[in-house]
């Protein structure tokens, strides 16, 4: 897996539709559908179409939870995924399994085990289904089981999640084997569902990964201008949702607020002509890393929400994202930051620019200045355009005076740290 390129993996995304789904998983017919009745096979195909129509992993997990309980109704069951299975740069040997779903057990979701350790870790590594009808009389199995529900189990059914021959997780059912045993039809149903779950999770993971790629500036590692527009729109909707909540409830006094910081370094823009391409890329990367390191609560994987928007969708308190829009211009969005709080972070960024010497390993000793402006919603603007204009006006106030400092809208130039 680690040897494959991003292009190869992204090219392998499976589209929705029963025909494409069946073709994409070579094991699907052999492992599952051939052993099912025509009615059951058609039902599994419909479930597969529903699963692969989702791009949200949470919706996929919710759907498989409903269907496993509807078809098999196990008293205790779990779905474990390989940590980082969607990370093309991470080999499986360094990964762990974590509980994405844990039903009827005291094991918390998120609990981790090493691949190859214990019964379930062995199933993941062996990449094959196992049905144990009598755990307590099987000394070899008893020696392997580690988790509490396995030690007390009468029976265990475990099926790996596989995509293109690679394991990405395991479904484990505890004490679901009845007096008549666990039929081949039940096992085939579970294996077919497992294949569709694997396909759906791969699709969701790599579509999300691709979205991060197209939203990120390669040179700085920060988000790009396209994503800034999406994020500001998301933040504005958070503010509007809080206004609506106040209208509905007289006792509700929370108003969602956020701040925007605009950072411009004219030297950085001008150095593009005097430095070599390699030197300039190295400089941009160092500046991007420095800005992220200077921001408390920096979120590297922010995801703008979609409609409908409610207060539950508001971003994590005090969350920060950074964007590079080219030409030496950066922006920071600071969820639930007042102007005073945002001004402190802006001053930290300014100090970072002022105190850092770049490209010393190249013998160049580059120094940069930064003109920084701060604006806050709703007091300095309620739309994306108004807030961008306010932040840039504050930045230009610095640019036209000292050319190196921080200014906040309606306050003016701030003293340096």
Could you list some keywords that capture this structure?
417 residues; alpha+beta; Alpha-Beta Plaits; six-stranded antiparallel beta sheet; elongated; disordered N terminus
Offer a quick outline of the entry.
The protein has 417 residues and is of the alpha+beta class. The protein is built from 14 helices and 12 strands.
Please explain how this structure is put together:
There is one protein chain. The chain is α+β, with helices and mostly antiparallel strands and 417 residues long. The chain folds into two domains: 6-213, Beta-Lactamase (2-Layer Sandwich); 225-414, Reverse transcriptase/Diguanylate cyclase domain (Alpha-Beta Plaits), CATH 3.30.70. The protein has 14 helices and twelve strands. It has helices spanning 6-11, 18-24, 26-31, 38-52, 57-71, 118-126, 139-144, 148-151, 184-214, 225-248, 266-274, 277-294, 339-355, 384-400, and strands at 76-82, 96-103, 112-114, 130-132, 156-163, 166-174, 258-264, 320-324, 329-335, 371-377, 405-408, 412-414. The strands form two sheets. A six-stranded antiparallel sheet has the order 3-2-1-6-5-4, sandwiched between helices. The protein has a six-stranded mixed sheet with strand order 8-9-7-10-11-12, with helices on both faces. A hairpin with a 3-residue loop joins β11 (405-408) and β12 (412-414). α4 runs antiparallel to α5 and α12 (277-294) packs antiparallel against α13. The longest helix has 31 residues, at 184-214. The radius of gyration is 27 Å and the shape is elongated.
């Amino acid at each position: 897996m680690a040897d494959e390129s991003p292009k190869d993996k992204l090219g392998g995304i499976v589209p929705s539709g029963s025909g494409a789904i069946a073709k994409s998983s070579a094991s699907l017919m052999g492992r599952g559908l051939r052993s099912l009745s025509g009615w059951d096979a058609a039902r599994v195909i419909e479930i597969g179409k529903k699963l692969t129509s989702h791009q949200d992993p949470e919706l996929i997990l919710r759907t498989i939870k409903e269907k496993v309980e509807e078809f098999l109704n196990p008293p205790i069951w779990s779905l474990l995924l390989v940590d980082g299975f969607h990370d093309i740069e991470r080999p499986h040997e360094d990964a762990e399994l974590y509980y994405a779903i844990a039903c009827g057990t005291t094991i918390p979701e998120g609990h981790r085990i090493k691949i190859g350790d214990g019964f379930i870790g062995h199933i993941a590594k062996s990449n094959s289904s196992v049905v144990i009808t009598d755990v307590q009389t099987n000394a070899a199995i008893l020696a392997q089981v580690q988790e509490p529900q396995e030690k007390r189990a009468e029976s265990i059914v475990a099926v790996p999640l596989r995509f293109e021959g690679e394991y990405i997780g395991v479904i484990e059912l505890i004490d679901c084997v009845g007096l008549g045993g666990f039929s081949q039809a039940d096992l085939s149903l579970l294996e077919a569902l497992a294949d569709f779950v694997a396909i759906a999770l791969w699709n969701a993971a790599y579509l999300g990964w691709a979205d991060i790629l197209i939203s990120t500036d390669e040179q700085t590692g920060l988000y790009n201008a396209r994503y800034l527009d999406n994020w500001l729109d998301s933040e504005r909707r958070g503010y509007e949702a809080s206004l609506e909540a106040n209208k509905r409830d007289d006792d509700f006094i929370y108003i969602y607020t956020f701040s925007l910081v605009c950072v411009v370094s004219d030297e950085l823009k001008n150095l593009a002509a005097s430095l070599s391409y390699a030197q300039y890329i190295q400089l941009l990367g160092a500046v991007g890393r420095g800005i992220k390191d200077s921001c408390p609560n920096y979120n590297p994987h922010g995801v703008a929400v979609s409609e409908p928007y409610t207060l539950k969708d508001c971003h994590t308190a005090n969350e920060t994202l950074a964007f590079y829009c080219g030409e030496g211009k950066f922006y920071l969005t600071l969820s639930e930051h007042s102007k005073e709080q945002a001004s402190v972070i802006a001053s930290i960024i300014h100090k970072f620019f002022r105190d850092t010497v770049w490209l010393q390993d190249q013998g160049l000793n580059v120094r940069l200045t930064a003109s920084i402006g701060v604006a806050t919603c709703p007091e300095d603007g309620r739309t994306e355009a108004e807030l961008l204009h306010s932040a840039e006006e504050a930045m230009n106030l610095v640019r036209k005076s000292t050319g190196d400092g921080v200014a906040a809208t309606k306050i003016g130039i701030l003293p340096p740290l």
